[in-house]
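Sanity check

After download, print the first record. It should look like this:
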Amino acid sequence: MALAWLRQRRTRDASLVDLLWTLGVGGAALLQALSGDGWRPRRVLVGVLVGAWAVRLAWHLARRLRAGGEDGRYAELRARLGSRADGWFFAFFQLQGLLVTGLALVFLVLCRAPEAGWRVQDGLAVALWLVALAGESAADRALARWRADPSRRGKTCRAGLWRYSRHPNYFFEWLHWCAYALLGLGLAHGAWLWLAPLAMYALVAHVTGIPPAEAQALRSRGDDYRRYQASTNAFFPGPPRAAHGA
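Expected C-alpha cells:
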C-alpha cells in the first residue's frame, strides 16, 4: 500500500487502492482456506466464494483503471483536501491494508471451525452470496451501458437497480459480506463475524463511499442529481418517491 501511495503521488490517481484491496482480501481468504485446520468442505467453500467474488470485482476495477481517469470519489476528496491530500491518502492507503488484515479474521474463523456437516444456514449463505454477486454485477453493467451512451452524458443513471437505490453497487457489496456472517452462525466465535458487514456499512455509507461520490455527482450533475436524491433511497433499495418540483 505504501508503494501504491507513492504511485498515486506521481500520477495523482488513487484508484489503484481499490484493486489492491480486492486482491488482498481474496488472497487472505485463499491463504486461510489452504492453511486452516477446520472442516475441509467449508474451507473449500470459503475459498471458492471469496475467490470468485475477488476475480469478478478485480476484473471490473482493472477495466476501469485501463480506461483512465481517477475515480470520482477520490478526485472529489483530492480537490477538497488540497495540499493535505497526500497525507490523507497515505493514511487511507494504510487503513485499507489494515482493513484487509481485519477482514482476514472472518476467513480465519470460518476456516478453523471444527464443526463438520452442512447446515441450513450454509445454504442460505450461499443463496445470499449469489444474490449479492448477481446484483452487484447487474448494477455495474447498467452503469457501464449508461455511461457508454453519449446522449446520456451529464445525466444521472436511473436504469435497472439504479432506479431503486442511488448506490446499488455498494448495497450488494455490503450484502456479500453478510453472507460470510451467515455462514458463521453456530460456529465458534461466529457471532463476531457480523462486525465485518457493520464495518463495511460504516465505511461505505459515512466515509469513503457515498459521501464523496454524492459530492462529486452534485458538482457534475447539479439539479438532475438533486432530483435523484429526492426520489431515490441512498443505500437500501426501495420504490422511487415523487420528487418535489420534478
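If your output differs, re-run the checksum step. Summary of this record's structure: The chain has ten helices and no strands.
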